[in-house]
Amino acid sequence: MENLEKYKNEILDNGFTTLCNIYSTDEIESILAIINQTNTSKETFRKSSDLFAIRQFLKEIPETIDLIFNDKLNSTISQLFGQGYFVVKSIYFDKPETSNWYVPYHQDLTISVDKRLEIENFGNWTVKQNQFAVQPPIDILENNFTIRIHLDDTDEHNGALKVVPKSHLKKIYKPETINCSEETETTCKVDKGGIMIMKPLLLHSSSRTTNNKKRRVIHIEFSNQELPKGLNWSEKTNF
């Protein structure tokens, strides 16, 4: 692969970057074929007119792991972040052609863990579909990263993420405190087979679909940190 220093600097400076052609058309179609053959009746699957989602995606559909972690993705992760990272969360999103699903600006402030424990500096606990989530100390969030694998061409008309560059550098940055005169907004267009990489503290949002085109994305979060004794990542997966 090409030298990725430019993309590494974009992640450090702006909190995100996009790369093309990580997956071939055949690889994307193979991933989708496996997803389409899956039993969707499990409690980790969410179905509505605006969204189909699979939580704990790699646990639920492990047959996709080798396809997802191909040589190009593994090389990209290694060059950008080094060794020692592992998966800590994975979700598949299918935003249908007529979706009105809108997500306002937010940061990804929680992590998925296996149980609830009262631990210093871990708070704002929630549980959804038997999945515990907690807001950890900020240094964990600052060190993590997310890769979004695009299974369709995605732009501003079918829910491409809009982000506020450099907002990941401002720690906890509540959307209601955004100074619109100082901040800029960028739409992250990604072609089918490409990826977006972002930091959890980057402010991001997603608009409604207006062009009658699907937007299917595999969202995978990574960390290289172990949690305090007794608390474990609920989806820890090595690759």
Notable traits:
alpha+beta, Jelly Rolls, seven-stranded antiparallel β-sheet, globular
Textual characterization of the structure:
The protein is an alpha+beta fold. It has one domain: Sandwich (Jelly Rolls). The protein contains six helices and 14 strands. It has helices spanning 5-14, 25-36, 57-60, 65-68, 71-81, 138-143; strands spanning 16-19, 45-47, 52-55, 86-95, 103-106, 111-113, 123-128, 131-135, 145-150, 161-163, 186-187, 195-198, 204-206, 215-223.
List the helices and strands and how they pair.
Elements: H1 5-14, E1 16-19, H2 25-36, E2 45-47, E3 52-55, H3 57-60, H4 65-68, H5 71-81, E4 86-95, E5 103-106, E6 111-113, E7 123-128, E8 131-135, H6 138-143, E9 145-150, E10 161-163, E11 186-187, E12 195-198, E13 204-206, E14 215-223
Antiparallel strand pairs: 1-12, 2-3, 3-4, 4-14, 5-13, 6-8, 7-8, 9-12, 9-14, 10-11, 10-13
